[in-house]
Amino acid sequence: MTHLMRGIPRNGYVIVQFFASDYERLWKASPTQIYAELNRMVEAGLLEAVESTVQSRRSNGDYVLTDAGREELERWLLYTEPDHGVRDDSLLKLIAIGALDDDQAQILIGHERVWYRRRVLALEKRLEVWPAEHDGRIWRGRRALFELWLGEARHMLTWLDQLEAYLADPQIPLDGGF
User: Fold this and answer.
1) Which of 14-28, 29-43, 103-117, 163-177 has the lowest mean pLDDT?
2) DSSP reduced 3-state for 154
3) Which candidate, 2, 11, 3, 7, places its Cα nearest to that of 55?
């Protein structure tokens, strides 16, 4: 989206790939959902569909942010309260872990550990190969987001270890387990 904000056209395929890559935590959406939203934004006058600057069999055209689109984006960024209550299936399962027996709880915790270990490795690799030339304001913000996600994933692994110990030892007091 930052490319669009700076007036750089982007085709639908590139936008879909953006959200399907490392940024899927921002919006986990199917290509159908993304194209529907792009079409809605064109109809609302927030984006303009233009002829593609690069010939590709994966795209029929590019999208460019209109002045009205930029105003709406700035309004959304600056004055709209974010939805902090987004559902997290992983946490939803973990909150219900008490309904499982010990062996089942271990399986659930194990699945979560695997996912978070993969997440940590992927984020570490992404940060290791971060191009030195990506040092502008936009790139610094993106890198900071990756650092945040890495810290969260590492913290979740530590928390899963604590949860496992907490569930295994009924002697750990309820008010001091974590």
Assistant:
1) 14-28
2) helix
3) 11
